[in-house]
Design a protein that fits this description.
Radius of gyration: 33 Å
Number of strands: 17
CATH architecture of the largest domain: Sandwich
CATH topology of the largest domain: Jelly Rolls
Number of domains: 2
């Protein structure tokens, strides 16, 4: 009887080698080696014409994240994705990944496979702020049973660092007019509807033109935001005095902060000679000189 059953199984396996095989019993892998207990030849899900939820998946499918990622559609603040195969219900712990098609302007939702819009939250329960999701940002969210929690970080860039350096010397300055320090200017854009805290650190060097002991010059260094001097904290003054027969060198630094909203902004450093009995060189070329101006901006998006 055993030989008969084995023979029939062999015939069946030969006859249906190119057909679908259905098994309604547990399958156990009990080969002696680990390579004798694996299933091979599975197609990547992306190559299957009509993948369904009960299909087995290959390593390639897992590595490509194909089952849980899609480019989002939908209007501003109402993101939607159509996963393939489609999910039939939201499950706690489910992760969905998408490339955002728009920048959000406030509280936002995600609708997966038409199952209904679910609120996206940051910091567990907080609604999104404008700009937390940027156009083309890769976003990951996890369903907690009520909301989708943002797990990919808030915003595409919650902190941005910008740095510029002097490109030339303002030579033999005697003018009292505040003038842009060459190269020490930075233009940047804050997304619409977003507020940002800007922390500014600037420094500039100076050198008296003549070498007479006791000769001096005083300069002002002033941070300007969108062409206007900062009302507080963005100004500093330094007096440079020759102590011997050499050209005296000194440096002035500024630390300031500003709050800016959506739009394009320019922050720059301007200098002038306030008084003295010698002309003064201010700043320089960062690739050549020891006294170039530099400015660093730290932008924190709220």
């Amino acid at each position: 009887m055993k030989k008969f059953l084995l023979s029939m199984l062999f015939v069946a396996s030969v006859g249906y080698a190119n057909a679908q095989v259905q098994i309604n019993r547990e399958v156990q892998m009990n080969g002696a080696g680990v390579d004798d207990r694996k299933v091979t030849g599975l197609s990547a899900a992306s190559a299957v014409t009509t993948p369904v939820a009960t299909d087995a998946v290959s390593n390639a499918t897992i590595q490509s994240n194909w089952l849980t990622y899609k480019v989002a559609t939908g209007a501003v603040n109402t993101y939607a994705v159509a996963l393939v195969p489609a999910i039939t219900a939201y499950q706690t712990g489910m992760v969905v990944n998408f490339r955002a098609n728009t920048t959000n302007t406030g509280a936002s939702t995600l609708n997966v496979n038409g199952l209904g819009a679910i609120a996206i939250r940051k910091f567990v329960t907080t609604p999104l702020s404008p700009g937390d999701i940027q156009t083309n940002q890769m976003v990951s969210v996890m369903y907690d049973g009520t909301n989708f929690q943002l797990i990919s970080g808030v915003g595409s860039s919650r902190m941005q660092t910008l740095h510029v350096r002097g490109t030339a010397t303002r030579a033999a300055v005697t003018s009292t007019t505040l003038t842009l320090q060459p190269g020490v200017t930075q233009t940047f854009t804050i997304p619409a509807g977003v507020t940002a805290d800007i922390y500014i650190n600037a420094t500039i060097g100076m050198r008296n033109v003549d070498t007479t002991p006791g000769d001096f010059a005083s300069i002002d260094a002033v941070i300007h935001v969108n062409g206007t001097a900062m009302p507080a904290g963005g100004w500093n003054r330094m007096t440079n005095v020759n102590h011997d027969t050499g050209n005296s060198l000194s440096n002035v630094s500024i630390a300031a902060a500003a709050v800016l909203t959506g739009g394009t902004h320019t922050i720059d450093l301007r200098t002038n000679r306030v008084n003295g009995n010698t002309a003064i060189d201010i700043g320089g070329d960062a690739t050549l000189d020891a006294t170039p101006g530099e400015m660093t901006l730290l932008i924190f998006y709220r």
